[in-house]
Amino acid sequence: MSPASERDPVFHAQIDGVLDLHAFRPKEVPDLVREYLQTCRAAGMTEIRIIHGKGRGVLRETVHALLRREPMVKNFRLANDRSSWGATLVDIYPPGVPLPEAPANSGKTAAKLCTQPARSDPVTLPGWYRLLQKIFERR
User: Fold this and answer.
1) Helices 29-42/58-69 angle, 10° precision
2) How far lies 9's CA from each of 12, 16, 18, 33, 104, in Å?
3) 107, exposed or middle or buried, with CB in 10 Å at 0-12, 13-18, 19+?
4) Share of the chain above pLDDT 90, in %
């Protein structure tokens, strides 16, 4: 091994379409799920299993809220197997298929909240920002 490779270890994980969230902190979950979906889509996988556990259902609801907003998600449902409601099965659009547009928000839109100058292409805001926006719109 060269000295550079000893200093900068690289973790290579095989993408198998199963994401187990047990080892991650709750604040890491939204970005992790989004990036995993993008990686699976780029690899041509269209069926994904996200293991969130049973517990009180907080993590499950976080995952489901994220999946509802993600344009690449075609459909999702609780697993109907031995894990029952401890895992969610997700169907995503294949890489060559254009993604549907997100439904228009009622009231304030994400583009109105953006301080950047007006552009012809839609502004994509991070998931955590859209989640906070929905929470505060309800108040």
Assistant:
1) 50
2) 10, 22, 24, 23, 44
3) exposed
4) 42
Q: What is the DSSP letter of 95?
A: T
CB 60, CB 88: distance < 8 Å: yes
- Token pair listed for 109: 């839109």
pTM value?
0.64
Give the helix/strand (H/E) hosting 58: helix 58-69
The H or E element that residue 42 is part of is helix 29-42
DSSP state of 47: E
Cα angle: 124, vertex 127, 130; to 5 degrees = 80
Query: Residue 80's pLDDT is what?
Result: 82
Determine the distance from the C-alpha atom of residue 106 to the mean position of all C-alpha atoms in its chain, rounded to a whole number: 23
3-state secondary structure of 14: coil
* Residue recorded with tokens 């799920």: 33
